[in-house]
Design brief:
CATH architecture of the largest domain: Roll
Radius of gyration: 21 Å
Mean pLDDT: 82
Structural class: alpha+beta
Number of helices: 6
Low-confidence stretches: 202-219, 221-226
CATH class of the largest domain: Mainly Beta
Distance between the termini: 35 Å
Helix content: 25-40%
Length: about 230
């Protein structure tokens, strides 16, 4: 079974999160969406943006202060920068919220299905037989990213997957279940389903930040958050 995708509007899905109804011999093991706050922090870098804009505001206020400006003059100097800061952060949060709302990840006993897209919805079918390795990255609060490395030459364009893709893997993108709740339990379910399909055991390695970018074949590797 090859990896394929289908343009699909989720309002008309025959089965939630799926482009078509599952066959009688296939069942849903897990289904979920990214956690908004975790996705905003990890994929959209909201905290870093908050720090960046905060530093801009402080720097502008400091320059006005050392120039001898009064408190009122400092506030007037920030009257344009402050609204832009709020608007920018709200835009990023809204994008994260829309992404989480329209994204659905599904694990069945045969495949992983990723329904993605805020405007144009597509679904990617990733057969468990085509998955070479998985990497669990803990994000705190039992949320995490689960990255899937595909076998052979199978690949999906990085831009089609974003943000459900491993950062900086452009030449051979790795689909990623981003900011999922109950990530450790999902990792165990994925390991069991993968083993049932491929007929060999997948070991869950202990967290190891130094090897967080290394994925051994047929191994579910847990990496600590960066």
């Amino acid at each position: 079974m090859s990896i394929d995708h289908h343009g699909h509007a989720h309002e008309f899905e025959p089965q939630f999160g799926l482009p078509e109804r599952l066959p009688s011999d296939e069942r849903v093991i897990w289904q979920g969406s990214p956690d908004v706050a975790t996705l905003a922090r990890s994929a959209f870098h909201l905290r870093k943006l908050m720090l960046y804009f905060g530093l801009l505001l402080v720097a502008r206020a400091y320059l006005e202060t050392i120039a001898g400006a009064s408190a009122l003059q400092v506030l007037l100097a920030l009257k344009w920068l402050a609204p832009v800061t709020v608007l920018g952060l709200l835009t990023v949060w809204t994008l994260a919220w829309l992404t989480a709302r329209t994204t659905v990840y599904t694990l069945t006993n045969k495949r992983v299905v990723m329904r993605l897209g805020v405007v144009l919805t597509v679904s990617f079918n990733l057969p468990l037989s085509k998955i070479a390795a998985a990497d669990l990255r803990a994000l705190g609060g039992d949320h995490g990213d689960i990255t899937l490395a595909l076998k052979g030459e199978d690949r999906i364009a990085w831009v089609h997957l974003w943000p459900s893709v491993r950062p900086w893997r452009i030449s051979k993108p790795e689909p990623t279940l981003r900011a999922v709740p109950g990530a450790s339990a999902l990792a165990a379910d994925l390991r069991a389903a993968w083993t049932a399909v491929n007929g060999s055991c997948v070991a869950l390695a202990p967290a190891d930040k130094a090897n967080s970018r290394t994925m051994a074949p047929t191994r579910l590797h847990q990496a600590s958050a960066l």
